[in-house]
Amino acid sequence: MAQVLGILRTPSATAGAVRELRGAGFEKLEVYSPCPSHEIEHALDRGPSRVRIYTLVGCLTGVTLAYLMQIWMAYDWPLVIGGKPFASIPAYTIIGFEMNILFGGVLTVAGLLIHGFFLTSRRDHSAYQPSFSGDDFGCVVDCHDDQVGRVREILGEAGCAEVRVVSA
Amino acid sequence: MAAATEPLPASPDAINDDILRVLEPPSKTYVLGVLFCGALVACGVSAFLYQVYWGFGVTGLNHPVMWGLYITTFVFWVGIAHAGTLISAILFLFRAKWRNAVNRGAEALTVFSVLTAALFPLLHLGRAWKFYFILPYPNQRGLWVNFKSPLLWDVFAIGTYTIISILFFIVGLIPDIGAARDRVRDWRRHLYRVLAMGWRGTSEQWRAHSRSVLHLSGLATPLVLSVHSVVSWDFATSVVPGWHTTIFAPYFVAGAIFSGIAMVITILIPVRQAFGLQAYLRDVHFDNMGKLILITSSIVGYAYGMEYFMAWYSANPYEQMSFWYRGFGHYWWATWTMIICNVIVPLPLWFKRMRVNLAFMWIVSIFINIGMWFERFVIIMTSLSHEYDPAAWGYYFPSWVEWTILVASVAFVLFLFLIFLRMFPVIAIQEVKELHYEEAH
After folding, report:
1. Residue A141: pLDDT over 60
2. Which of residues 136-165 of B touch A (CB under 8 A)?
3. Does domain A2-47+125-167 have CATH number 3.30.70.120?
């Protein structure tokens, strides 16, 4: 297996290169970019991030826990006020809302850490270079040794400022 | 809001250079500024220790005014903390692209303000070391906190807001820490390498990052509206003349955004001048923030008028007496300072020429900061010192201990902001770049 790196200058050119590569059947792609780009995201077409599931689970857990906590504590130390029910659901909505946001936010960040960092940390990032946080976009393609020529050709046509084989 | 129209620097690499230049070794003025703020914070800590040693008698607090400068300043700093979330989350959801250059500074201000605000209820406790009594923790008495109390809602609201605004701030910073790691050559490089947690700007990272920012914005938007509403209910749910009104929540939220934007302007104008960030913090930003000031100033002005109208229209003698006292009683000076600073002074901002005149904007923002502090002072003092029973009327004036702690709190926020300026990019590099590519497209 070989790894070919193409360095591009704009998100549009990078998205174009990704589309060309995918069209030619190369799906093992990694793109490094200095800023987020919808164009590149659409070109890669990897669907929405799983972070959204974390947010939903966090929000539902937070609001449920908040109500359960307040109701349980109200019955654990009952205060008799004019014969009213011990648990006062409308008043508990405030803390229910706050805990919904708190758990939703914390789990969103947990989702980011899991999917953006921990699950991808073992991948080979030897092609990364500091200019990818400056003004360069990197497009790395994993391919068979006999496909290197074809990949170089596609990347060159897509407007890469530089194309090189990073590992063979 | 108009999109940014003035051109950005020619190359995205220049954006890194310009913004990361702020992290270079500091000037003497900067070091003196940090030391000065640090000295003021030390004075505040000493005043607090003095208060702990001698007890609450060293403050001006006494019956009937049991909430004083500390609660005033707590509400003030919580209000300031709203600007960051407004700019970062609400304007993000509305796709107001001009926010990109100012959001990082505003978010930092939010985090530092809310941390400072959280100190004040603790300072206000006679025995600050018992603060954990307010948390629902299992204890030997089997006793739980009262979840029907607005003061407890406040603990949860402020606690959530602190955590979410810190998370939002850190999530936004990660890509820029990655950029700093690739650029900075001194000892901080190792720090950035750890803090960047392996950020390389891969497509998977950006996908998760963008989605997280979107969701955090979606969560922070109702949160920011709820936080100052909950703070306002600390007042509005009690049957005190001048407090017991339904307009308190929107009135407080508008006031919070008003004061927060003013504080962002107060801080960002000197930063822009000192670090040569004119290409990033441009006229369009101050123009738009001026418009936000105008609209929130109008809402606050309307609320001031409406409070008087409702006092008259209610035909409630206590409410009428309370508002007469507010305007013409012992605290008339505070009330008129509040009205002049918050309603009259911002009026020239109706003219664009004044909104892009940064010297004028800076002076107006200072007046608003003062006016909004007085707003909370007026709400608390006038109502508590003149409740129902004339036999229980009183007068409160803060003692030197309280004034010292107030000044120290301002210095504390500035101190943290100055440290932040040299440690992390004050402008969101990746967002400015995103805008750059979009404009070039």
Report:
1. yes
2. 136, 142-145, 147-148, 152-153, 156-157, 159-160, 163-164
3. yes
